[in-house]
């Protein structure tokens, strides 16, 4: 049986003629049901639908109709985003949410319908042949955020429309409610979508507007996600992942999936989430570090992974999460860690370019609520050594321990200096002191107090950490010991290098940080779909 | 500072002229060091390098040279895969592993070098101007799987080469060992790469060849992954993920990342991994089901996720893992669950086509070790109802409970019957009995003993499960109660639907199963990079 044959409604074992008859019967039945429901709805609104010969043009869609295929094509629905003057005078059908409903007398109601953050104004106006005053009342009584099907004619309004993203209007002919929202919502979409600027402006005008705080947003994330800014943020996030992968696949990287369940405890450093694995102690991977290096020893040459990373740290900052999405890369190198930095450089310029080119509407939606300046970056990414970096800080009176690390404040200051001097908010700082890097970091050949490592910054905040790794097992043991790590606890890792290990290096990026900093947002919880922090594991 | 300027070796704060002088000094130093190492190596082999004016052409590469950039370009290395007769008489440099070393007298040695599963024969032959007999001895003494740099001239051999994938030979001029493998490996690559057919043939000829069992392979996964078949399998896996995403992105899906750390216990069914989350009971997500549905309620319209899925089940089968990579999809539907099946249909045809087009060499590498027939699939995927399926089984004497489920054996039998009747090994079975599906599955409109759900099969094994979901909160509560699920334990989930929920449906696929079944492999551990099962959490 071919696919097209089997698209008839089940059961499909009947004869064709029986099916046709049944289809007609079903059609009649559907019409009857719709009228019944319209009756019930109208009754609830104290309207008599018996008096309304146009009752078929509106009402609640019965569930049964959302379970059974009608002859309509999915493409019969136009996206709200696509509504423009090229469709003028054309009939369209849209599905979206009733964002705002404004009755004007008894004969007219304005309905703003939203889909994926885009909005269009719909006019429900009583008309002898199609729209009854009962239908206007039905529209006026819709609860906000209910899902509706609107059929109507696209028209060009005389004056520009305020309060909708699309500059056309729909003259409504039919209006059905697909799914009703509860009458009182815990947060109002208008409030959730409001910018700080608007709120401040209102305060200055002596007015008080509702400010939805971050925690309330997250408690009702399903509603919060519907704001245009959030619709933009997660579409941008999706595009970052896509650009990341497309660049790396074109550079002969292989996408891998490494286990998150790890025996014992991870490679050290931050606190881990522990669990019982079939009677054995286990933990959640803090990074795919070990397994991506093993994959290089397993001859994949160049690998990357996009996956969750778990950190049980008690970090209560704007930039730490207990679970985030890691973009990890590991690659063979021929001679020098700059080969890894070359990939970082080109990769991120490609990602930024792709966001600027492909996410214009999304960036605008974010900017409308959270204003930010476009990221300044160079075609060839600036590279400074750590020594050069602390020298720049020294010149403005900030003293840094030469073989220590930069704190968040110093990083931010250096970001400012770099922006002033080089005109970029994206740069690489490399040749970090060995003492502040993990034991598996390759020391510099000419000065073992430094290492073949780097951090990458956006707007003064670190987003990437990378390095050449020690690939010689004896040297790795020696480095582990120097860092007070018991060699036998990491013997499986070290043994991976005994069967011939190509020189290699790599880096890790936090997806949420990239989006947060590209968009100049102030909190990483804004760029995690359902964030996890020390105080939050819901929703 | 531009990128090209900063590519000089650090520290980069010196003047240009100083740098040039330093570079020359470094070059001389490098030569000296290389000779020193060559001396040491030769001494170890009881050879006097003092007698060898050509000692600079071979030896171990000192670590320092792998930490510091030389003037060479990464592109100076040719990929083994790219070596063909178009390069005849041209000098090339390759980096790969010494797979086999075969000395022929004292003046000649054959070296097979492997990179990413592709192999080339290299001839090290004593020659007055370039290759000394000490160098031949150095080559002959290399341990298998060591990483080597080979420089030489490409030549076309008189007779076809056996035991290498590339049909050209390299006349070696220089040979350096980058990283030495231990002399005795726990598993031999030749053994690990051998097919069952070869082993059986040898047995019939009275010969005994080593068979590396699955568990040993996994214990030494870093070596096992180097076989051509494994190189192919994980490149195919990477391509499945890529084709999956490219298709969905083109169909306006948004890629999301949902949390794997979940409060309480997951949506029910299989056993979960439990852990402590900052003093609160938590578990690892058994699927992104709840969060992907919430993302639909959050207005993303169409979403997908690629991420780990955790199942604590004690399943000791060829097709179950405790951690696998889930490909998950959720989408709004307008009227019918066939809209979801339409996506499944086109998506998988696109994935299969892309594997056949883009992974020819990888599929061949897998087939050489694990012979299989190409998957038979139709341009429009066959769809059968569950009723039709059990009717087909009944006709051959297999009785199935009408409102029960198919067991593995019945699924396999039905796969055979479908192949015979319709000529496809990929099909959709839909309209499953409601009783065997999760509580959130939408019942059929015309018979609530059936549901708007489907499974998808490859070669008689299930790979996809999907359905329309119940989007009406009151109905969802009712269904949960009917399935003996305490409504209050899932209230956060149900509440997500109270703010207007679009009708929607989706499906989940196991990435490892897709690769296993497309390639007709007999064990899912072959398609998981570092598999986790009830008895294995390493490496």
TrEMBL record, chains A, B:
Keywords: Aminoacyl-tRNA synthetase, ATP-binding, Cytoplasm, Ligase, Nucleotide-binding, Protein biosynthesis. It is found in: Cytoplasm. InterPro entries: Aa-tRNA-synt_II (IPR004364), aa-tRNA-synth_II (IPR006195), aa-tRNA-synth_II/BPL/LPL (IPR045864), Asp-tRNA_synthase_2 (IPR004523), Asp/Asn-tRNA-synth_IIb (IPR002312), NA-bd_OB-fold (IPR012340). Gene3D superfamilies: Bira Bifunctional Protein, Domain 2 (3.30.930.10), Nucleic acid-binding proteins (2.40.50.140). It catalyses: tRNA(Asp) + L-aspartate + ATP = L-aspartyl-tRNA(Asp) + AMP + diphosphate. PROSITE patterns: AA_TRNA_LIGASE_II (PS50862). Residues 1-44 are annotated as: Disordered. One of its GO terms (molecular function) is ATP binding. The keyword Ligase applies. Its EC number is 6.1.1.12. The keyword Cell inner membrane does not apply. Residues 234-531 form the Aminoacyl-transfer RNA synthetases class-II family profile domain. Pfam families: tRNA-synt_2 (PF00152). It comes from the Eukaryota. GO terms for cellular component: aminoacyl-tRNA synthetase multienzyme complex; cytosol. Its main location: cytoplasm. GO terms for biological process: aspartyl-tRNA aminoacylation. NCBIfam families: aspS_nondisc (TIGR00458), PRK05159.1 (NF003483). Belongs to the class-II aminoacyl-tRNA synthetase family. Type 2 subfamily. This is aspartate--tRNA ligase. It comes from Cicer arietinum (Chickpea).
């Amino acid at each position: 049986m071919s696919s097209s044959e089997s698209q008839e409604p089940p059961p499909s074992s009947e004869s064709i003629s029986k099916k046709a008859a049944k289809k007609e019967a079903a059609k009649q039945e559907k019409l009857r049901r719709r009228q019944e429901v319209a009756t019930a709805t109208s009754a609830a609104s104290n309207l008599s639908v018996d008096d309304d010969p146009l009752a078929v043009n509106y009402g609640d869609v019965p569930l049964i109709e959302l379970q059974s295929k009608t002859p309509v094509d999915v493409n019969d629905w136009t996206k709200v985003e696509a509504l423009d003057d090229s469709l003028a005078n054309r009939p369209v059908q849209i599905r979206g949410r009733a964002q705002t409903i404004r009755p004007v007398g008894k004969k007219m109601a304005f309905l703003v319908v939203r889909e994926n953050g885009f909005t269009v104004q719909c006019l429900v106006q009583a008309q002898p042949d199609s729209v009854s005053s009962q239908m206007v009342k039905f529209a006026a009584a819709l609860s906000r955020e209910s899902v509706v099907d609107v059929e109507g004619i696209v028209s060009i309004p005389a004056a520009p429309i305020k309060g909708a993203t699309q500059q056309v209007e729909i003259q409504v002919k039919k209006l059905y409610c697909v799914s009703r929202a509860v009458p009182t919502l815990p947060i109002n979409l208008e409030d959730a979508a409001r910018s700080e600027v608007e709120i401040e402006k209102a305060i200055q005008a002596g007015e008080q507007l509702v400010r939805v705080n971050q925690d309330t947003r997250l408690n009702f994330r399903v509603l919060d996600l519907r704001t245009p800014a959030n619709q933009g943020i997660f579409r941008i996030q999706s595009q970052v992942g896509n650009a990341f992968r497309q660049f790396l696949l074109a550079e002969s990287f292989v996408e891998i999936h490494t286990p998150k369940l790890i025996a014992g405890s991870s490679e050290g450093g931050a606190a881990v989430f522990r669990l019982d694995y079939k009677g054995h102690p286990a933990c959640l991977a803090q990074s795919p570090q070990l397994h991506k290096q093993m994959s290089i020893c397993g001859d994949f040459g160049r690998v990357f992974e996009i996956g969750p990373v778990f950190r049980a740290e008690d970090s209560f900052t704007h930039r730490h999460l207990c679970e985030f999405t890691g973009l990890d890369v590991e690659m063979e190198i021929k001679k020098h860690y700059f080969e890894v930095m070359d990939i970082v450089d080109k990769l991120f310029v490609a990602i930024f370019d792709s966001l600027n080119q492909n996410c214009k509407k999304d960036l605008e939606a974010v900017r409308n609520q959270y204003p930010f300046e476009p990221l300044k970056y160079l075609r060839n990414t600036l590279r400074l050594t750590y020594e050069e970096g602390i020298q720049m800080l020294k010149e403005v009176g900030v003293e840094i321990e030469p073989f220590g690390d930069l704190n968040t404040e110093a990083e931010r200051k250096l970001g400012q200096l770099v922006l002033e001097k080089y005109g970029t908010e994206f740069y690489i700082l490399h040749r970090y002191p060995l003492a502040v890097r993990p034991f598996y970091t390759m020391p510099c050949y000419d000065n073992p107090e430094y290492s073949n490592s780097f951090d990458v910054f956006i707007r003064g905040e670190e987003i990437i950490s990378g390095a050449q790794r020690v690939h010689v097992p004896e040297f790795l043991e020696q480095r582990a010991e120097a860092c007070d790590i018991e060699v036998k606890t990491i013997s499986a890792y070290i043994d991976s290098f005994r069967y011939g290990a190509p020189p290699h290096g790599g880096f890790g990026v936090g997806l949420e940080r990239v989006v947060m900093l590209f968009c100049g947002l102030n909190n990483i919880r804004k760029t995690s779909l359902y964030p996890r922090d020390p105080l939050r594991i819901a929703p």
